[in-house]
Amino acid sequence: MTVDIPVIETDRLILRAPRIEDLDAMCGFYAEPRSRFVGGPIERGDVWRALLRSAGHWQIRGYGVWHITLRDSGAMIGHAGVLHHVEWPEPELGYAIFGTQEGKGLAHEATEAARAAAARHFGLTRLISLIDPANDRSRALALRLGAHFERDEIVKGHPCQVWRHPEIRGDAA
Question: Mean pLDDT, the chain, as a whole number?
Fold first, then answer.
C-alpha cells in the first residue's frame, strides 16, 4: 500500500511527508536534553530508526506525523500529526518544535493545522495528547489548542497525562 501524504500549508509553514534529508535536523533535536519528552536524547542510529518509524506509520495506519518546515527556507523545524502506537490508548495528536524555533507561535500554527487535516483527510475528529507531567510547554500548547486534562495514565511504563482535544468536524476542518 502506498499512502498519499497530503501537504498542509499555513501562513509560515509547510507540513509534509518525512524525508531522508530530515535526518540531520532530527539528530540535532534528539541530541538536546529537551527531547526527553519524545524519547530522547538518542544517537544518530536511533534517530534514523525514528525517521523510519515516522514514515512507516503513514504506511501502516494511513496517517501519521508531518514534518514541519519553514515556508521561506524549507528548514525542518519539528513535527506534528497523529500517532497511534499499539501501546497508546487511542490516536494521539503529537507535536515537537526544535528549540531554536520555540516562542514564535509555530508549534500552535502547525499543530492546529495538523489537527484540522487529521479530521478532514482521515476522519480523526476526537484526539488526545499524551503529555509528560513535567512538560510545561506541551501542556501550555494543549491548553491553547482548547484541550483539557482528562486523566493520568501509565504508557510504556511512564506516567503521563491524557489531554482531550475538542472534537473537530471533518467537514468543517
Answer: 93
